[in-house]
Specification:
Number of helices: 10
CATH class: Alpha Beta
Structural class: alpha/beta
Distance between the termini: 18 Å
CATH superfamily: LmbE-like
CATH architecture: 3-Layer(aba) Sandwich
Number of strands: 7
Number of domains: 1
Radius of gyration: 17 Å
CATH topology: Rossmann fold
Order of helices and strands: EHHEHHEHEHEHEHHHE
Helix content: 40-55%
C-alpha cells in the first residue's frame, strides 16, 4: 500500500508526520501551494521578512524542493491558494475529486486531524473535511496530529490516546484509534534539521507557537488516528 500525506501548507507534513513521509512508498501533497498575484501583501509574510507574498511562495517552494528532493521524498504541489491569499470559498468536493483522480489503486491517505484546543487553522480544517469526503467515497483515510496546533505531552501514553480517541471521535463523528510512533534520536535530529531548512517560516512559526516546534515531546513522538473497524 502506498501512502499519500495531505499537507495543508509547505512544511506541515515535515513538522507533523516525519515517520510517514520518509517511508519509501510515500508522497506528500502540498495542497495550498499556489502562488498569489504579484504584489499581494499579508501581515504574516511581512513578519516572516517578505513583503511580496508571491515572492514568499516562490521561496517556500524552493525550500520544499531542497528539503524533500534532497531526502528522496516524493511530493506534488497543488495550486490552491493559502487562506491568507484567497477571497473565495473553497470547493472541497472539487479538491477531493482531484486528489482521488490523481491517486488510484491501493492508497492510504493521511489528512490533518485539525483538533487543536486553542486554534484550528482554516486550511487544516478544510483538509480534514477533504479526508472525510474521501472516506465517504470509499477510500482508506487516516489522520495525523498537526504540529504546532496540537502539542504532544511528555507523558504521551495509552491513557492519553484513549482520551484523544473519545474527544476527536466525537468531533469527527467517527470512532478512531490513535497510535503513537516513537522516533529514534537519529530520526529526531534529521527531522529537526529539515524543519530548520524551512527558513522563511520556521522562526515565526516557532515564535508564535511559544517555541514549541523543537520541544522534545513534539520531536520524539508523532500520533496518527485510524478509523476503528
Amino acid at each position: 500500500m502506498s501512502l499519500v500525506i495531505l499537507s495543508p501548507h509547505i512544511d506541515d507534513a515535515v513538522f507533523s508526520c516525519w515517520h510517514l513521509i520518509t517511508q519509501p512508498d510515500a508522497t506528500v501533497v502540498n495542497v495550498f501551494a499556489g502562488i498569489p498575484p504579484k504584489g499581494t501583501k499579508t501581515l504574516w509574510d511581512r513578519f516572516c521578512g517578505e513583503p511580496d507574498s508571491a515572492v514568499m511562495m516562490q521561496k517556500r517552494k524552493k525550500e520544499n524542493d531542497l528539503v524533500l528532493k534532497s531526502r528522496s521524498i516524493a511530493f506534488l504541489n497543488l495550486d490552491y491558494l493559502d487562506r491568507q491569499y484567497r477571497l473565495n470559498d473553497l470547493d472541497l468536493d472539487e479538491i477531493a475529486n482531484r486528489i482521488q483522480e490523481g491517486f488510484k489503486g491501493n492508497i492510504e491517505f493521511y489528512a490533518p486531524i485539525a483538533a487543536g484546543v486553542f486554534w484550528r487553522h482554516p486550511d487544516h480544517l478544510a483538509l480534514r473535511e477533504v479526508g472525510q469526503l474521501l472516506l465517504r467515497k470509499g477510500r482508506k483515510v487516516s489522520f495525523y496530529a498537526d504540529i504546532p496546533y496540537m502539542q504532544m505531552p511528555m507523558d504521551l501514553n495509552k491513557g492519553y490516546l484513549r482520551r484523544m480517541d473519545q474527544r476527536i471521535g466525537k468531533l469527527l463523528k467517527t470512532p478512531l484509534r490513535g497510535e503513537i510512533t516513537k522516533l529514534r534520536p537519529a530520526e529526531q535530529e534529521l527531522k529537526l534539521q529539515a524543519m530548520h531548512q524551512f527558513k522563511s517560516q520556521y522562526k515565526m512559526t516557532n515564535l508564535t507557537s511559544l517555541k514549541t516546534l523543537s520541544r522534545k515531546a513534539n520531536l520524539a513522538k508523532e500520533v496518527t488516528f485510524g478509523i476503528k473497524k
